[in-house]
Amino acid sequence: MSLSFENIRHSYGADPILKDISLTAKKGEIVCLLGTSGSGKTTLLRLAAGLETLQQGKISLGDTVLADATMSSPPEKRPIGMVFQDSALFPHMSVAKNIGFGLHGMEMDAANRSISTQLLNVGLAGYEERFPHTLSGGEMQRVALARALAPAPEVMLLDEPFASVDVTRRRQLREDARMALKQSGAVTLIVTHDPDEAMEIADKIAVIEQGSLAQFGRPEDLFLKPESALVAGMFGDAMAFEARFAGGQADFVFGSLSLADTPLGTPTGAVGKVILRPDAIHLRPAEAGSNSPYVIEDLRFVGHHWLANVVLRARPQAARLRVQLADADRFNLGMIVDIEYDSSAAFAFPPHTGA
Questions:
Q1: Rounded average pLDDT over 221-244
Q2: What does the pLDDT average to over 275-301?
Q3: Mean pLDDT, to the nearest integer, of 59-85?
Q4: Which residues pair with 339 in a beta bridge?
Q5: How many whole angstroms separate alpha carbon 309 and alpha carbon 139?
Q6: pLDDT at res. 354
Q7: Does 270 or 219 have the greater pLDDT score?
Q8: How far is residue 299's CA from residue 286's CA, in Å, rounded to a whole number?
Q9: Strand pairing category for 155-159 and 56-61
């Protein structure tokens, strides 16, 4: 059973928030809605939950219409669980009672088994008698996830669920949440503004920018085959530079990229963007007496690799290029270098393709 959005348009007053959004999330699939604040991703989530009245388009769960321009089933009638950035646990209730809140009508033994199973799935077995004030932020979010999953909803909606969790604990929480959500078999939508988070947890990513769907697909497709400068710039610590397109190449402050295909209709001299990732750039020490315009301004170890900052010798304040190095044995501060680019991870976008 899939959750489908068809031609969704929504405005707040005269301000359009969503502009003709169409996408489908399948049963057992985790879809991240990725975008900056104000892009419309949370509005789409609230429309799915029934917390906003749909103005145009249609939202369906399988063959059942949840909302269209003429009707909207109330939130309590939708088979949907929700987790917010603030876990919103009941402070006067134990963990077990928080999770069991949505299990009204279930026999006590069955409810207790469900509570224990959900706590096991989110890595909190044995926490039944704890109270929210004794839990860390990450633990409270785990309980909130367990509470939402306990009634076995067909759809799970999560709005920035890890944003308030300490960064050192966030990765483990994401991993545990992904496994619990996959085990549930529910359709899952997660709102986030963090591209790394989307990459780590999602089966598919929908990039929303200013109310429009910029790209929707598997993480590897968005990373390797971005359809716009916006999407390319979101992943891999990418850098954006203004570029001028002419003669089958894109010229920018740090050289040129040869283009296998320049979109038809791109005028000579058109100004667009080049998007580069640090691992797409290769340095080599320039030969003695070289006129190379590039010099290493900074060099430091950052964990799994070294990071070099390269600038223009004549205009060091004009721009900076970050380059990943496997080691720094051949390089030092102030060294003049030559630059090459890996075309598989360097992208050029004329203005009409989303630059």
A1: 94
A2: 94
A3: 93
A4: 283
A5: 39
A6: 46
A7: 219
A8: 17
A9: unpaired
Lowest-confidence region among 155-169, 173-187, 281-295, 330-344:
155-169
Give me the phi and psi of 102, to 5 degrees please: -95, 10
pLDDT per position as a tens digit, 266-281: 677 789 999 999 988 9
Tokens 């290029």: give the residue: 321
Q: Over the chain, what HEC string results?
A: CCEEEEEEEEEECCEEEEEEEEEEECCCCEEEEECCCCCCHHHHHHHHHCCCCCCEEEEEECCEEEEECCCECCHHHCCEEEECCCCCCCCCCCHHHHHHCCCCCCCHHHHHHHHHHHHHHCCCCCCCCCCHHHCCHHHHHHHHHHHHHCCCCCEEEEECCCCCCCHHHHHHHHHHHHHHHHHHCCEEEEEECCHHHHHHHCCEEEEEECCEEEEEECHHHHHHCCCCHHHHCCCCCCEEEEEEEECCEEEECCEEEECCCCCCCCCCCEEEEEEECHHHEEEEECCCCCCCCEEEEEEEECCCCEEEEEEECCCCCCCCEEEEECCCCCCCCCCEEEEEECHHHEEEECHHHCC
Q: What single-letter amino acid sits at 126?
A: G
Contact 99, 152 (CB under 8 A): no
Residues 18, 40 contacting (CB under 8 angstroms): yes
Cβ pair 195, 35 in contact under 8 A? no
The span from the CA of 53 to the CA of 226, in Å, is 33
d(CA 163, CA 37): 13
Give the pLDDT confidence score for residue 260 in this predicted structure.
64
Measured CA distances, 353 to 30, 39, 232 (Å)? 28, 20, 12
At 196, the amino acid letter reads D
Which residue's entry shows tokens 């089958």?
248
- Mean of per-residue pLDDT scores for the chain: 91
Residues 199/235, Cβ–Cβ less than 8 Å:
yes
Q: Measure the CA–CA gap between 327 and 338, rounded to whole angstroms.
A: 17
Name the pTM for this structure.
0.89
